[in-house]
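Hi team,

Filling in the usual template for the complex we talked about on Friday. All components are listed, including any nucleic acid strands or ligand strings, so the model treats them as one assembly.

SUBMITTER: L.P.
PURPOSE: interface mapping
COMPONENTS: two
RESIDUES: 701
SEQUENCES:
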Amino acid sequence: MYFAVNGKKVFATTGGKPFDNKKPAVIFLHGSGLDHTFWGLHSRFFAFRKYAVLAPDLPGHSHSEGAALTTIEAMADWLHDVVTTLGIDNISLVAHSQGCLIALEFAARYPQQLRTVSFIASGLATPVNPTLIDNAENDPQAAIAMMTSWGFGSAGHMHQGPIPGSSMLGGGQKVMWRNVPDGLATDLKACDTYQNGKVTATKLSGPIQVILGGRDRMAPRKATQELIDHLSGPEVHIIAQSGHMVPLEAPDTCRDLLKTFIFTNNPAT
Amino acid sequence: MSHFYHFDTLSLHAGQTVDSDFGARATPIYQTTSYVFPDTDTAASIFNLERGGHAYSRITNPTVAVLEQRIAALEGGPAAVCTASGMAATFCAITAILGQGDHIVASSQMYGGNISLMKNTLPRFGITTTFVDPTDVEGFRAALQDNTRLVYGELIGNPGLDILDLEGVAAICAENHIPFMVDATFNTPYLCRCFDYGVNITIHSVTKWMGGHGSAIGGVVIDGGNFDWGASDKYPTITDDYAPFSGINLWEEFGPGAFAMRIRTEAMRDIGPTMSPMSAFLLLQGIETLSLRMDKHLANTKVMLKYLSDHAQVSWVSHPDLSAHRSHALAKKYLPKGAGSIVSFGVKGGRDAGKAFIENVELVSHLANVGDSKTLIIHPATTTHSRIDAEALVAAGISDDMIRLSVGLEDVADIKADFETGFRAAKKIANP
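RESULT (copied from the run log):
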């Protein structure tokens, strides 16, 4: 669905059901250069199980208007504007990679409506290789190659797909092409400069879940452990065979973990 | 900094998950109609497209899925759908986005089945086609109508062998927000990846070079994932809610794979032109050696081109790799490894001499196929293109004396020796 935030058109998939702000909302936050389609194998599942689903495209990404936001803090504020615009008062936040940094900042700034947070494949910070940022601005094809080469594990590199007949690697690359150079480059710079994770993580309360890929090269174990150490009692799951793109590479395991966590801690009736 | 598997590696491995039960290295043949669901929730979620998985082999099958993912990988697309034949692929791809009142602009130099589909069958469903000379790029623009929803062609025209200027036609399509669909059977992704030049959808008869062994019929549609279906309201089958699947919006949910999902959710379910698991297995065996076979096809073709060009009983030879061919420059651009292994030539003495040639070769097979590992010949005017009228024959570049040769993988000396037998018989007709 489309709606306006700060005068700009925003697109969000609602998982095939009309968005109903009276239901508990599951909000999915995508990573750098990606969009709502990243959550296709999760958003529809929750929408058909009594949750209001919202998987927005960040500003300047795919179907959402405006320039890409330049800081994680601005993205968290924008998300708050989305929540306010739609009148949402019960949120389970599910975030991947850059989305996790937004989730950290949002949770620290606007904890009132938040019931649960699921962090997927992230640390407290995401320092970005300078060559990647340079390529994102000047050689998008090389940047997309770097992102997807590092991002996908062996299943992705072998063009397996969570849906029969689809290649998750091919799909991921095409989505990123929609968002270059501005969306991807701005995202990467925002990630690179975000330093507030250590502060915000300690402010979080309530049920927290961390899902990691055992073969993640973009959020290595040392970085993800730092996130875990700063959170208050998160449940932690490591999907051994997955790379960074956990929701695509291990969709059934990831969905089952999200389902159990959200159904338990923020049930929809 | 980044590394992806290369073509030959993908030809062997892409799309396959090694069998978790027994560790089978080859892709197992899942010869089953249906699949046991672990619980009702999983069953419901698969039917509702909330998760991947197999429900019924008319829609998806694990063996066929490996082939689809392998071909998608080789072509560089996000998704593919295999079908029972190449013609099924073409029909499913067209009808996924076109309906009553819509219009196609298509090359006049195409496989006779494609021409017949567009000229005779699709008009019954209210879809009309304007055919244009593929060597006239601006002709595609001139033929566009307000209701044009598709531009269609073959990179290597069959059997005239003119090369379609992909970038030129793609630019016209992009300007007018019309998808560009190309039958890439004759080139295979080893010789040209059409998506790299702006094509949006490719079709293959995988019966031909992709499979290579002449043992299985099959087709495939590959979604390039590079067409913005939502940029206009011209493609409602992709962008509007689809009632049969709880109002799913394919463009919204699947983005770059939305077109393939339309075929999967509509054509495979409502029409059912399904590839069998056995065929998929056989075609996978062929694709494992695609590059090796194509290199040999090209090497033999090079020898045969010189042989035919020098032969006293040959009146003309046509192949885009020959400098005299009008598409030679385009062939060098789009097909730098070589412009495939189909050769057209005429036998001195006309139709009767040609007939004598065909009937007197022994090693070379006279049949209606191309792209087999074995060398094949046929007379298009009386066979593959016999159902199209004289005017269309001319437009397709088919002359009465044309023989179409599909160069195989035999020792090329044996092919030449067999041809000598045919030419001796033809000479008796030409010079009684």
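MY TAKE: The domain at 2-126+195-265 of chain A is CATH 3.40.50.1820 (Rossmann fold). The longest strand of chain A covers residues 114-120.

Thanks, L.
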